[in-house]
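Please go through this chain and its backbone structure tokens and walk me through the local backbone shapes. Keep your notes short.
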Amino acid sequence: MRWCVALALISTLLSSNALAAGKGGKKKNKKEPAASMESVGTDPTKTEHSDPGPYSPKGATGELAEQNKQTEEVAEVVKARPRDKTLMYGDVAVGFGYAPKPGPASDDKLPHSISGSLIIGGRFDLSPTFSFGFRAPISVAAMDRPSVNNEDNGKETNVATGAIELLGEYRKYLSPLTSLPILFGLGIPTASGDPDISTGENKNRTNMIVDGARGWRDGELFWPKRIPVILGIGIRNEGRSLELHAATKVVAGIKIAGEVLVPKYYSPIGELEVNPLSVRSVTDVGLTYNFTPAFWAGADVWMVWEAIEAMKFVSEATPPFPLQFVAEPRLGLNLGKVRPAAGFIVPLGGRLADPSIYAAHLRVDVAF
């Protein structure tokens, strides 16, 4: 009996303590609520990712997919066609044939000649989108002397300098593969010779021959007594193997000296005048294709519009055709930092094609 009473008392005391503890716990919870996941750390649902199931979409989607695509394209361009910050080059054209000259159709070519021209140039990337460059030419031409009594009088050789050209290029990237280059430049009037062909001044004729042999593509380098101003725009798409490009440049030559001493040189057919401003545009389209990492082939076709000639022929006769069409197929090698290329310049139509002048074209780029 005593044990039963003792057990009852112990049971009563334990139950009363449990009830008191329960009431105290509830009061404490009201005053100090339990800490949430945000107060003690990051919610696991915000950082954990479920494993992809059998019905999950393949690959990245949305903004992540676009970023991955752009990253892959940039890597593709860098891997396919790395751009060196500094590039120096030598450009040689060996021409032969008859170059056109200002005048009537009956007498529109210079004597047969063999010419050689060297252009030393360079390009320096000041930033990923802006480059500075220069070009400086020197030329030589051996021309047939006029025959006397149907006898060959041999050739006369002359050396001429060209205008030094300072260039800038800004590249606007439409995509990692496609850029929009904008070209602008100014020439220093160091081209030798006098624009007056009536005096038989052969330094000017040398520059005219070299200009024709190069397909009238770089006339700003070979205009004597003029300050060349250059402005151009193009588009370029570069892939792993195929590169496509197109560009148009307009060149204006501002006369600083030179007059025609014998304006009636072609009398009575017409007269010669020196225009105070000459304007020429060149529109080029082309491509290159890498057959292997070390070997490529390409071609360019360009149209030249002689809007205002440096030497004007005033006549009632039909004026010369203002458009010229020229093509140049090319082959090249990528030998690390040295990249040689060879092409052949062929006039397809216009005044350059009529008297027929051609040139073998060699160029070597050296990257740093």
User: Anything to note?
Assistant: Residues 1-56 have pLDDT under 50 and may be disordered. Residues 2-31 form the longest helix (30 residues). Residues 84-367 form a domain with the Lipocalin fold (CATH 2.40.128.130). Helices lie at 2-31, 37-40, 44-47, 62-80, 202-213.
